[in-house]
Design goal:
Layout lengths: L1 E7 L5 H9 L3 E5 L6 E6 L6 E5 L11 H12 L4 E7 L3 H12 L5 E6 L1 H6 L2 E3 L1 H8 L3 E3 L8 H10 L10 H14 L4 H9 L2 H4 L4 H18 L3 H20 E3 L7 H9 L5 H47 L4 H19 L2 H17 L1 H15 L7 H7 L3 H6 L7 H10 L9 H11 L6 H21 L23 H19 L2 H12 L15 H13 L7 H9 L6 H14 L5 H8 L2 H13 L4 H11 L2 H31 L4 H18 L11
Parallel strand pairs: 1-4, 1-5, 5-6, 6-8
Antiparallel strand pairs: 2-3, 3-4, 7-9
Amino acid sequence: MKIIALLGNPNSGKTSIFNLLTGSNQQVGNWPGVTVEKKSGIYRKDKNVCIQDLPGLYSLSPYSLDEQVARDFLVKTPPDALINIVDSTNLERSLYLTLQLMEFGIPMVLALNMSDLLENQGKKIDLEKLSYSLGIPVITTSAIKNKGLDEVIKAALRSPEVQPLDYDHRLEGALSEISKVTGFTNRFEQIKVFEGDQLLLTKLSAEQLDEVEEIVSITEKLMTDDRESIIVNERYDLIGHFVQLSVSQTETGKVNLTDRIDQIITHKWLGLPIFVFIMWLVYFISIQTVGTAATDWLNDVFFGQWLPDLIANGMNALAVTPWVQDLVLNGVVAGIGAILGFVPQIFVLFLLLGILEDSGYMARVAFVMDRIFRRFGLSGKSFIPMLIASGCGVAGIMATRTIEQERDRKITIMVTTFMPCSAKLPIIALVSGAFFPHASWVAPSAYFLGMSMIILSGIILKKTRMFSGDTSAFIMELPTYHLPYALTVLKYAFDRAFSFVKRAGTIIFAMNVLIWFTSNYNWTLAHVDAGQSILADVGKVVAVVFAPLGFGEWRATVATITGLIAKETIVGTMGVLFAHNSGDSHQLWSAVQATYTPLSAYSLLVFNLLCAPCVAAISTIYKEMGDVRWTLRAVGFQTLVAYSMSFIIYQLGSFFSSQNFDVLSLVALLVLLVGLYFIFRKGKDVSYELS
């Protein structure tokens, strides 16, 4: 089987092209020994061609895990051909990776993607001149129009080995000498040895190292520059020549639409209000309008009537014993149905987020948030993991690896899960729909509350001796705006929804069975009402802890505890427990309305949004922190923040609604003042190394 690898910069359209070439014939996993996602697929038009999608990267210098994975793949298991996906609107920047890939000598094709956007800028690339300069085939593609993709595959399969480009004769002489000393015949390895790459230098003997250092030292004197700058400058000199030769301006004075939009979207004062409005609109559409219509039908009709009636009639016809019927209807259907009913809202939410991300807007949000984060001592790099965490906290935590400063990285790990992930969406939808059906601010408030707590927590932590220090620099590319790729956006939304359904069918299913059993039997295993069950006894003991937060009721307590296993189980647990009172899972809203007040329900929402994340996320925190103490610090900090915020909201909210100022109101006010003190106090001037 022929293996073709796709490589390109982030935002070059590589993933969209991969999806179009492979369709649904994909396998997703992890690269051996690391958590970087591995994606491969069979070419739709030839089952003998496997396409490997490598992580998006700007260079092959192994500073990040993604770059290390791509480099190892090309060195240890070189594919039959490479397809380098290049953003035509950023040709000069993109060609740096191209030149590095050519150094491997693997047959290669350059795919100029987004060529239609380049035409909109009034520019044109001469394909023949660029192909002649590079010595490889160059083909224009457009993922939006599905143009040129099959031609790229055909060209890759018949492309010959790539011949290395010639640099300055002094550098060429040095590389030739390095090849003689080390025995490395691969151009990429020769250059990496010249640069002082530790991964390759460790393979050399002491005598070889001395000779290499002498060669490099002589070259540095001849070219009056250091070893790394010599390579970078030589590459960019070639790139500048290629761009000047092949790119021409077809129209003058043409307005750049991206720049015009960015003048508003990234404006110093307008950027943040625009972002707030867009996110409000996203949650309003997904939680309270379009998504809600489908969710209501699933809850009220499918899981509320059709499915329970169908299963009940089937079990009656088979004369199934009553306890099994109760388990299936009030345990499985009530619990799983209470969760799966929110799938339409999840799909719509991530469909809209996918549109924002694929169009290039979310990159601007990171730029806008960097201004805010930097003002409070945080790095804009911290926003990227937070953005990823809106899909899954585990992925968001792993994304902190891109942050160089250890202090900033650990702060980001500690606060990233404040962002509401897809697993928290059911509790957001339940509270906003059941208690605030006409208040469009409730669902978006969960998003902005999480982001606010990230900023405030970052301020507090940054002022401590443990985390004080300089902030990491934040540099990122702002891609050209373009219409979202329908296939990419739909696949993104389907993947998120399917992941949610998959969890409902595995761990959440098991949890619902356990919840049903412990809520139906007492310690002597006698069948009892839920109020006298094992679960009720445990819940009542722990409920006293949550009483100051307004939901010191055993069912809410149990649901909160099960949320530590998986946040989706919060609503699933309520579906099982309240089915004893309401009879059907579709009446869950009415049941919780009769048990809690809107204020206590919102307090419940706040606590579950901010408290310690699920077991999988806690495990990832431990892996990234590499220390039990730091993991406990992170989980303890998150729980303390959640309890404090929920306590303040409920107690002060009760005071403003009833005008009754009691001891708990005073304590809540004191907690608020202490929080404000830690936010506005002067930071520590002395910092210590983290251990």
